[in-house]
Write a structure and sequence with these properties.
The structure is a single chain. The protein is α/β, with parallel strands linked by helices. The protein is 46% helix and 20% strand. The strands form two sheets. Strands 1, 2, 3, 4 and 5 form a five-stranded mixed beta sheet that branches. The protein starts with a helix and ends in a 10-residue tail after the last helix. Bound molecules: zinc ion. The site of zinc ion (ZN) has 7 residues, from loops.
Length: 406
């Protein structure tokens, strides 16, 4: 083994590449490795793989590598251009980096491992690179992994929206309900997003005609999009989203009533909206006390608990009858926000009932959503929707995004 053999091994370099110079700069905390190819070496054509092409000229390039203890490490090499009889003069691919990157594959692999766990900005600080450079790496590998997806097995899809960092614009997330992962994420929450998804599906091994089930919220936009672009699908309105509308109705009643009963209802919002089993003992006591009061909010709350039972019934016909009776009861109560909610149910009847056939777990979209919310908190300072979308793919897409290290 020559003097630099250890470095050559650490870098995984093979013939004809070798380490020819190692320079430590203690003051700048920098390690420079110069790599070169053996004199007279010949390379394969990067286009056709024809072996033994002669080197025409070279271009020197430097790549950032993994830190060597506290030293920032860089590789510098002359990258040859070879002459292929068929393809002319072409630059060869070096084994330690991809084309047009300023980082080695190992450095990029480190970034891709970190990005699942920490904000890009923090990674930038950790490795001493501006975060725009880190984002460039992330986008390269995420884009590639998204494109490489095989959606031939996709038969049940979920659609959900999530607000982007400013809370004004939205992205739509399309999930494979059986693989329990996000497969397509795009800007907006209109009908066009469903069209885009159906195109993406068709160009990634899937078939629109095979999608037999779609789970979504009750928005007109998704509904119109699904009817038009996923025409074979039966639509289920997601239990979680349906319940959100009911929670909104309760809260509207509480806020109105709080104007007269300030002392009683102040700061009680979460008591009414959380499931009883998720309350702390103290909250439970407080709620029990409130339930003794002759309040409209109490009436709405009790109706809402009975609405939840609709989902617990096993027999679809019994469930349908149950819901009709529940709606009649709501009308008797005279609570306008609740009545408005029942109209929404009636307008979306088939999709609400469909839940009892498709049994799409409400936890799925909810689960993806909480992953996404966590990602959003972690990745403050996204700056662009493109960055936000990349992080959603990383946390909710189960993608193998990163370089293939041999
Ligand atoms: Zn060639």
């Amino acid at each position: 083994m020559d003097d630099f053999g250890l470095f050559r091994q650490a870098l995984g370099l093979e013939e004809p590449w070798e380490v020819v110079e190692v320079k430590f700069d203690a003051a700048r905390r920098r390690l420079d490795l110069r790599i070169d190819f053996r004199k007279g070496a010949r390379f394969a054509c990067p286009e056709c793989g024809a072996a033994g092409c002669k080197v025409h000229d070279t271009e020197t390039h430097t790549w950032r590598h993994l830190n060597f203890f506290q030293h920032e490490a860089y590789l510098t090499a002359r990258v040859p251009r070879v002459i292929c009889a068929e393809h002319g003069t072409l630059q060869v691919k070096v084994p330690w980096a991809r084309e047009r990157s300023d980082f080695t594959l190992l450095f990029e692999a480190l970034v891709m491992a970190l990005v699942k766990e920490m904000p890009v900005k923090a990674i930038g600080g950790l490795v001493g690179e501006h975060d725009t450079k880190i984002w460039r790496i992330v986008h390269h590998y995420v884009d590639r992994a998204v494109e490489a997806q095989d959606l031939s097995g996709l038969e049940r899809a979920g659609i959900d929206e999530t607000s982007s960092r400013r809370g004004q614009d939205y992205v739509s997330v399309f999930a494979d309900l059986d693989e329990r992962r996000a497969v397509y994420v795009t800007e907006g929450r209109d009908q066009r997003t469903v069209q885009e998804f159906s195109c993406f599906l068709e160009t990634h091994g899937g078939e629109v005609a095979r999608v037999g089930e779609v789970c979504q919220d009750m928005s007109e936009a998704y509904l119109a999009g699904t009817l038009k672009h996923l025409p074979r699908a039966e639509i289920t309105f997601d239990r979680y989203h349906v319940r959100q509308h009911l929670s909104k109705a309760i809260d509207e009643i509480r806020r109105e009533e709080a104007k007269q009963h300030k002392q009683l209802l102040k700061n009680t919002r979460y008591l009414w909206l959380k499931r009883p089993r998720n309350l702390t003992a103290r909250q439970q006591d407080l709620l029990d006390e409130l339930l003794q009061q002759p309040l409209q909010t109490v009436c709405a709350y009790e109706l809402s608990l009975r609405f939840d039972d609709f989902y617990e019934l096993d027999d679809p016909d019994a469930a349908e009858e149950y819901l009709r009776r529940w709606i009649a009861e709501v009308h008797t109560s005279g609570l306008q926000p609740m009545i408005k909610f029942t109209r929404m149910l009636e307008d979306h009847w088939l999709g609400v009932m469909r839940w009892h056939h498709s049994r799409v777990s409400n936890g799925l979209l909810e689960g993806l959503n909480s992953l996404i919310q966590a990602a959003k908190r972690r990745a403050r300072g996204y700056r662009t929707n493109r960055n936000y979308i990349a992080v959603i793919y990383l946390v909710a897409g189960k993608l193998q995004a990163g370089p293939q290290i041999a």
